[in-house]
Design brief:
Helix 1 (2-19) packs antiparallel against helix 2. The protein has one domain (2-205). Strands 4, 6, 9, 10, 12 and 13 form a six-stranded antiparallel beta sheet that branches. A five-stranded antiparallel beta sheet has the order 1-2-3-11-5. By secondary structure, it is an alpha+beta fold. It has two helices and 13 strands; from the N terminus they run αβββββββββββββα.
């Protein structure tokens, strides 16, 4: 009986491993885009139906980068996000944010690469005021035309635009990082499958 339960447990978690990708990226600045952004950790959890991005500000805030005006995640092929469902924010997010399926564009907005990204923006003149040690979480729900198209490129793109943007100056400081798809849960799934095989053999011989 224990063997049957172990095998069932393994199959449940093996399925989760394939569907859910979790990762983090910590930058001391704007990464490849420059050096003026605050230090931050970007954590994401992406599945075939939803994606969550959490930004934790670690320090380095100044009057030139203590606002956030747009964020995005890219994880699939163009036009694969066929529709957006509910969009929610949590943590310390304030303001009225608008979600789209385009990528982040300079100027605190979301634009091109429709269907390959999920994005959210707030009016650049009313950006989210940031504080060191605080977290800011954004969650998109969506429908994919082809769920197997997720991570087709093997990469995850993270974007964020810092400001403030004032007057007609809508060009903020943009983090734009593409990183290999993390294998945390994939490795976990492989380990669990190995354990499953052992449990199955043991249950069949006992």
């Amino acid at each position: 009986m224990i063997g049957v339960v172990a095998v069932a447990f393994c199959f449940i978690f093996a399925g989760v491993a394939k569907a859910d990708t979790i990762g983090t990226l910590t930058l001391s600045n704007c990464g490849t885009a420059g050096t003026a952004c605050p230090a931050a950790t970007y954590s994401f959890d992406i599945t075939s139906t939803s994606a969550t991005l959490t930004i934790t500000i670690n320090g380095g805030l100044t009057s030139a980068n203590d606002n956030l005006t747009a964020v995005d995640l890219g994880f699939t092929t163009q036009n694969n996000v066929s529709s957006l469902g509910a969009f929610t924010t949590s943590g310390n997010v304030t303001g009225t944010w608008t979600a789209t399926d385009g990528s982040l564009s300079s100027g605190g907005s979301c634009g091109v690469n429709n269907g390959a990204f999920v994005c959210a923006s707030v009016s650049p003149l009313n950006g989210l005021t940031l504080a060191t040690g605080k977290t800011y979480t954004f969650t998109w729900n969506y429908t994919l035309t082809d769920p197997n198209g997720i991570f087709a490129s093997g990469d995850v793109h993270i974007g964020a635009e810092y400001g403030p943007n004032a007057g007609n100056n809508y060009n903020g400081l943009i983090v734009s990082q593409t990183i290999p798809e993390p294998s945390t849960l994939t490795l976990l799934g492989a380990g669990l499958l190995a354990m499953c095989g052992f449990a199955l053999r043991r249950s069949l011989t006992s």
